[in-house]
Amino acid sequence: MNVETGIPALDTALVWGGAVSLLAGLLTVSWRAVRAALRLGRKLNHFMDDWAGEEARPGVPARPGVIARLSSLEERQSRVEHALHPNGGDSLRDAVDLVNRRLSRLCPDCDDPGAAPELEE
After folding, report:
1. What's the pLDDT score for residue 28?
2. Whether residue 48 is found in the same domain as residue 84
3. Residue 5 domain-assigned (yes or no)
4. pLDDT digit string (tens) for the chain, length 121 residues
5. Residues 16 and 50 reside in one and the same domain
6. Residue 50: which residues within 8 A CB-CB, separation 6 or more?
């Protein structure tokens, strides 16, 4: 199909206009793809910095990585878990048991140490 307007200058301008529009569209699509790739790369870089941690630099303290944070959490959890089991007087469990023994001596008629005493009206 050969469509022409009959005016050679107008036909040339339309062909060049179509070519420029096509080129501008391709450049726009490629720019958006490059920009999206750069954003993704930046986010991936931030993730890797958070994962591995960062050394201290002037004005900014060091940040430990994920593995260091997890090991720190595990260490704190083991200390908390240690306090929940009787160990001879230093644990929270030993303190609660001591309070229960003292309470049972102060209130011998109370069968259930967890039950609240009944108040007389």
Report:
1. 98
2. no
3. no
4. 577 888 999 999 999 999 999 999 999 999 999 999 999 999 999 899 888 988 888 988 888 999 999 999 998 888 788 777 787 877 888 888 888 888 888 887 776 655 655 655 5
5. yes
6. 63, 65, 66
Q: Which two tokens stand for residue 37?
A: 């790739």
* 1 assigned to some structural domain: no
**Considering the domain boundaries, does residue 2 fall inside one?**
no
What's the one-letter identity of residue 39? R
How far is the C-alpha of 91 from the C-alpha of 73, rounded, in Å?
A: 19
HEC-encoded secondary structure of the chain: CCCCCCCHHHHHHHHHHHHHHHHHHHHHHHHHHHHHHHHHHHHHHHHHHHHHCECCECCECCECCHHHHHHHHHHHHHHHHHHCCCCCCCCHHHHHHHHHHHHHHHCCCCCCCCCCCCCCC
Q: Are residues 45 and 70 in the same domain?
A: no
The domain tally of the chain equals 2
Q: How far apart are CA 76 and CA 8, in angstroms?
A: 83
Let me know if residue 100 belongs to a domain: yes
Structural domain including 31 reads 12-54
